[in-house]
Each structure stands twice: as structure tokens, then as C-alpha cells.
Write a structure and sequence with these properties.
Distance between the termini: 7 Å
Helix content: over 70%
Shape: elongated
Number of strands: 0
Strand content: under 5%
């Protein structure tokens, strides 16, 4: 029966297995990015790994709560999922609503706060020099490659694409968190004896 004890339990188990897979993917992608020298910025790698580990812990907590019908674990799982839903939904909406002027302001702030190694990575990957002009990078790129465009023009479409994709993916996963919250809420309030009835 759809919506019964067994269905809710299996739905929570499936959802948490999906979250465990996503957590491992996040950790794997960050590790691969560091090993392949695609990203050398340690805070970025650390942030992605931390998100993956946090998602793994939450998913394991939800999985144990679903399998054992553990009231306390399910309660904390619901609270954390709802908080994550609110935060992720707000950030996803902000990413989708950002206009090009704000994107440029954020890109300039990111460029100015980046160290020379990160700037050199961007210049090498996107074949550009400097941000507003080719001489402001501080990496000596303009002396080596005088024909390269500025990174502002090279990154403009990528930044816009990144905001749209991040917002769309964040919106999708925020709704899976809302579904997980509602299924956990319903499952938590079901009696374990309903398993035999279903």
C-alpha cells in the first residue's frame, strides 16, 4: 500500500542510500580534483570534502533511524533536513536570481582575494591573463602570453552558467530534502505494528 509503514521505511532507506552515494561522489570528486591538480585551492577542496562527510553522517543517521524505527534519530534527522532545506532553498533561489552586475562584483571580489597560485590556475585553465586588464594578475602571465584576453571576458559565460547550474541542482536537492523530511515525519509517527498489517 502506497504511503504505509513499509513504503515509508523503504522510501527513507532509498533516499538515504542516494544521499550516501552523493556524499561519496562529493568526496571522490574533491580528491580527484586535488590529485589531478585541477584545483589547488585547499579551502575549496576542504569545503567539498566537508560537505560530503556531513551528508554521509546525516544519511547514515537517517538510514539507521529508518531501519530501526528509532524515534530520536528520526527526530534529529528531520530537524537537520528541514534546516538544510531552508538554507539550500534560499541559496538556490539567490543563485538563480543573481544578475550579471552582481556576478561581476562577486567575481572581482573572488579574484582580489585569491592568491597567486589560484590566479595562475585560472589563467592556465582558461587561457587568459589578469582580470580587468592583462597586467593586473601578479603572476607574470602578460609577459609570457601577450595575446591572451582578460579573464573577465573569458570567465563571464562560465560564471553565469555556474550560477544557473548550481541554483538548479540546489533547488532539486532542496526539494528531495523536503520529501525526506515529510516521509520521515510520517514514518516517525507510525506504529511499528503497522508492518504486519500492510
Amino acid at each position: 500500500m502506497c504511503g504505509g509503514f513499509k513504503f515509508s521505511k523503504n522510501a527513507l532507506i532509498a533516499l538515504n542510500i542516494l544521499y550516501i552515494l552523493v556524499g561519496f561522489i562529493l568526496i571522490g570528486v574533491a580528491t580527484y580534483g586535488k590529485a589531478a591538480n585541477l584545483v589547488t585551492s585547499l579551502p575549496i577542496i576542504g569545503g567539498i570534502v566537508a560537505c560530503g562527510i556531513f551528508l554521509l553522517v546525516i544519511a547514515i543517521m537517517g538510514l539507521i533511524g529508518a531501519v530501526k524505527h528509532h524515534q530520536v534519530l528520526l527526530f534529529f534527522y528531520m530537524v537537520v533536513l528541514f534546516i538544510l532545506f531552508v538554507i539550500q532553498f534560499a541559496i538556490a533561489c539567490a543563485c538563480l536570481a543573481v544578475n550579471s552586475d552582481t556576478q561581476n562584483t562577486l567575481a572581482v571580489a573572488g579574484w582580489n582575494s585569491a592568491d597567486n597560485a589560484t590566479k595562475a590556475d585560472v589563467e592556465n585553465n582558461f587561457k587568459c591573463c589578469g582580470f580587468h586588464n592583462t597586467t593586473d594578475s601578479g603572476t607574470g602571465c602578460a609577459e609570457k602570453f601577450s595575446d591572451r584576453p582578460t579573464c573577465e571576458s573569458a570567465l563571464e559565460n562560465m560564471i553565469n552558467y555556474g550560477f544557473r547550474v548550481s541554483g538548479g541542482i540546489g533547488l532539486f536537492f532542496s526539494f528531495t530534502e523536503l520529501v525526506g523530511f515529510s516521509v520521515a515525519y510520517r514514518f516517525r509517527h507510525m506504529a511499528a505494528g503497522m508492518n504486519e498489517v500492510q
